[in-house]
Specification:
Elements (H helix, E strand, L loop, with lengths): L4 E9 L3 E2 L4 E2 L3 E13 L2 H8 L6 E6 L9 E4 L2 E10 L4 E7 L2
Antiparallel strand pairs: 1-4, 1-6, 2-3, 4-5, 5-8, 6-7, 7-8
């Protein structure tokens, strides 16, 4: 298994309130780079997690645990939300689905 795909853990920081205009500023996104093994999710795991097939789901495996808080994961230009997470002894696995 190769851990050669760049995966970005994104944390969304909401914009500040401006009392002069009554509007909120733009949200900012902080990204943390990790390298992972990324593969399509198998059909047996799709049945377990989603109760049937779901389009655009991936399995992401890291060599070490990721403990920082995050909101979503970006792989290439696609953004994913975490549906299932499992920590093994040294590895961390995420089953993610694409956010529209």
């Amino acid at each position: 298994m190769r851990y050669d795909t760049p995966v970005y853990f994104q944390k969304i920081i909401p914009g500040e309130y401006d009392p002069n205009t009554g509007n909120y500023g733009n949200d900012t996104v902080e990204e943390t780079l990790r390298y992972a093994s990324v593969m399509d999710t198998g059909t047996d795991l799709l049945k377990l997690v989603y109760d049937g097939p779901k389009q655009g789901s991936l399995t992401i495996q890291l060599q070490n645990h990721y403990t920082e808080p995050f909101d979503r994961i970006r792989v290439d230009k696609s953004v994913y939300s975490v549906d299932f997470s499992r920590k093994l002894r040294t590895k961390h696995t995420f089953v993610v689905s694409e956010v529209q």
